[in-house]
Design goal:
With 172 residues, the protein is of the alpha+beta class. The protein has five helices and three strands; from the N terminus they run H-E-H-H-H-E-E-H.
């Protein structure tokens, strides 16, 4: 039966002596790469607005509701209306977005790039009722990413305003 060899403290010291230079070189190399990447990549700021979705004020005893699923649909309809080419192009022109890329980007490419920078995320809550328990949307976050924090904040504010205005139009 073979016996297993137990490493001693001297064995660990011997390993460090033989491989120490390789370990230090690897650590320093990775550190230099990390510093270069962190300095070379420009910062991106994200401005977020949270919009609360108010629940139905009509009692459910009078009108049966499918409000939990209707809220998500209503948000999607409003999103489709707000994210039109016309609205996005007005915002691009108003805040002079992508002016650094003006000669190389077409209008469609600018609009596509802006859509990539906009994020809409639903915020759910456990809705408990006597009959069932659902995951309902109670709010959603609207975010916009940009290299300049002032522009990110202004565009996000403009988008939130457009969402709220479109909601008022659709409810009337």
């Amino acid at each position: 039966m073979s016996q297993e060899y137990q490493l001693t403290f001297n064995d660990y010291i011997s390993i460090l002596r033989r491989r120490g230079l390789l370990m230090v070189a690897t650590f320093v190399g990775l550190l230099v790469v990390a510093i270069v990447v962190s300095v070379a990549i420009p910062p991106v700021y994200q401005s977020t607005g949270t919009i609360l979705v108010e629940s139905q004020t009509i009692p459910t005893d009078l009108i049966p509701t499918t409000a939990a699923s209707m809220i998500d649909e209503r948000i999607e309809v409003i999103r489709q209306r707000v994210m039109t080419r016309e609205n996005l192009f007005k915002i691009i022109e108003k805040y002079k977005l992508f002016r650094d890329f003006t000669p190389s980007l077409t209008v469609s490419e600018k609009i596509d790039e802006m859509r990539k920078q906009i994020t809409i995320e639903s915020i759910g809550a456990n809705v408990k009722s006597a009959k069932r328990r659902d995951q309902g949307t109670i709010a959603f976050k609207l975010s916009f990413d940009h290299r300049k924090p002032e522009i990110a904040q202004r565009v996000a504010n403009e988008l939130v305003t457009l969402f709220l205005d479109e909601n008022v139009k659709s409810r009337t």
